[in-house]
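pipeline/complex-builder :: batch 7 item 3
reading input block
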Amino acid sequence: MTDLPLADRLLEEAAWPKPRPLGRGLFLLLALLTAAGGIAFLALLAGDNPVRAWQIFLVNFLFWSGVAVAGVVLAAIFQVTNARWARPVKRLAEACAAYLPVSFLLFLCIWFGRRSLFSWIDQPPAAIAAWLNSSFFFLREAVGLLALYGMSLLFFYRSVRQDSRALAHRQPGDSLGADAGFLQKLAVGLLILYAFVYSLVALDFVMSLDPAWSSTLFGAYYFMGNLYLGLAAVTVFTLYARWRYQLEKTIDSRILHNLGKLLFAFSLLWTYLFWSQYLVIWYGNLPHETGFLLLRIAHEPWSSLAVVVLTMNFLVPFLVLLPRSRKESPGTLLGVALVILTGMWLERYLLVAPSLAAAPEILLGGAEALITLGFLASFLLAYLTVLSKVPILPVGDSLFWR
Amino acid sequence: MSATNQQPVSFTQITDDILAPMWKPSRGYLLLLFAAFSLAVVGGLCWLHQINTGMGVAGIARPAGWGIYISTFVFWVGIAHSGTLISAILYLFHVPWRAAISRTAEAMTIFAVMTAGLFPLIHIGRPWLFYWLIPYPNQRHLWVNFRSPLIWDVFAIGTYFTISLIFWYVGMIPDLAAIRDRSTGRKRSIYGLFALGWRGSGNQWRHYKAAYLFFAALATPLVISVHSVVSWDFAVGIVPGWHSTIFAPYFVAGAIFSGLAMVCTLIIPLRRAFHLEKYITLNHFNQLSKLILFMSLIVSYAYVMEFFIAWYTGNPIERDSYYYRAFGDYQTLFWIMTVCNCFVPLVLFFRKMRHNLKVLFALSLLINVGMYLERFIIIPVSLTHGFIPNVWGLYTPSIYEIGILAGSFGFFFFLFLLFIKFLPVLPIFEIKEVFQSQPAKQFREATS
């Protein structure tokens, strides 16, 4: 950055990228794909195996809501830790909040699939009937998700407001009202709420699919994995914005290096948490614990899928991102991030599907592909629309200028 | 930010300030040293008595085969965590404020691992056969049981100690050279020997920086692995209260929590006694407090999750063991632990408290009490209340166990006091870097 005083640099607003409208062609394509996904879901639902439709719906709901939440949470982490390097990435991460309203609607849809998804819905296990019963289940999830989504949207809104005020007044955001201080406090609250609500999501939407199984680590494993896939998504969005808005100077190799290091660290963390859970269950060898794992690692076809998941989320990022030059190369970083996104999608599938499958087969056909594409398109539609209406860079954030 | 920090400080001044404690010990220092040494001697005598008489003098008996020796072992390994966290992980994260506290924290790590290492030896009863723990080729083809987590401990802690020691030593080389250059006679030759001919040339600095980065990268996974392995000593067993998948990350967070608290316990008096306010500023404590608060939240999360899942399993034994923990014979300890670890640290949400050293010092002591009790509650208390009611029992440490526990504190503080006298308590050159570098200054201004 130049040495000009902050106010002068803000005056040079014209030098900063203006948000560009979403192209009509792209909009149509995404809308069409979303509609196709919806139709494929309804068709599958009307078929003879509605569980199959709800299963792929749940996996995609968990994955794409996860991206939306993790984007905001990563921005909150940057905020709390005063991460100067990450300031150019902050807006691209927090704009994931665009999908949160959609995600809440999708959550409400799960009500209709509850009988297909949750084996305990009609006969809750006697010992924990106070916890696993459908009214309390949907009540706590609705309250938890509303609180988390509301807080995330507020965070995004106040962060954007800080920018628009700064641009309007030609002054750094923290001198205008309490946005910066508020964001800092809100971010702390958001992180705590995230750990709590996402543990609940993990316990309710994944662990309860197999009500006999439980693990104390599962909540943390799930929400850290969610941050991992969110980080991969943010990396992809960063590279996209860097290309589309010619931000090579602002999003420089240092930022790419840092994103690469974080992806590397998260891949190790994810593997560590997986291993911590696996080792304890394997060594203890108690039947009510091993069932969940054995199904996934000792029975085909799930065991092959498990190897694929481990390769894509651990081996590939670990080996590829080891040298510094690869972390700084946009092409390699994009490739690894996409591998991780796919790998983590498969991981979420592996967590959900075996608990629901009537027969040991991986049901990933054309319909599933269309539904997943539909979710992807709907996410991009929401994300890109919002991104085309807000500043791409957090120009009102004073740490952005340091 | 204290006003002193704004005054220009010359590099010579920095070196003088930091090396000041090394020249002439005060009476207070000698008194403390004597007290710590005496305490260590008491512990040593208790151990001698135990070796002489047999393990019967300790309170460990069925059903609690692991008592406070193992709890204390875990406690000290936990204390050892913050040093490498601060010098390796925070280094990788480019955290500028770590410099001022890194040396003390690393020294603490070394001494805490040394103290911890005594406890398995005390616990095995026949310490002269300690080498049975180490796998080596032998005529009878007897090997250790590699499937035993206790052997994983030998490896994990051995590696951690080695890397921490090297890391600490490498970080000290430029400072040892600085001491050499300011002393004469035999002292000069001793420090000169350990300074490895450091002259501070550009080439030396380049190699030094590269080596430091690699050590930091290698030490980082160790911070995580050591306490994970320690946690598996318990978690892989099927004892109710032990067998829990969250143990590894939860133990790591708890270890960092207690380690950071111990850093505060040591640094707050140290800063005052040697007038280091210029280098260890209130901002350092602010940042340390935030880390402590973060770790406290993780630990609280783990407590809640453990209780909830114990209930969720629907398993009567699992449920009962957690009920016993909170409302059984040891309930007082449990509630003291919960207050110290989960509730008291919440005051750190307030900025004023993070800048109040008296509060912070008191808090750090409470956290250490809380974390010690946590280990006690997990280890012997779980054992006293296992699967079969007719082998339930109570565990009370004997006077000799308490003596050895007290001795371990004496041993630790004795070593630490020697460190203050003989080695620089702050990394001189890193402090100089921080005082010079622009971003760090801006950071201090931004966050103070």
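note: The CA atoms of residues 202 and 432 of chain B lie 16 Å apart.
queue -> next item
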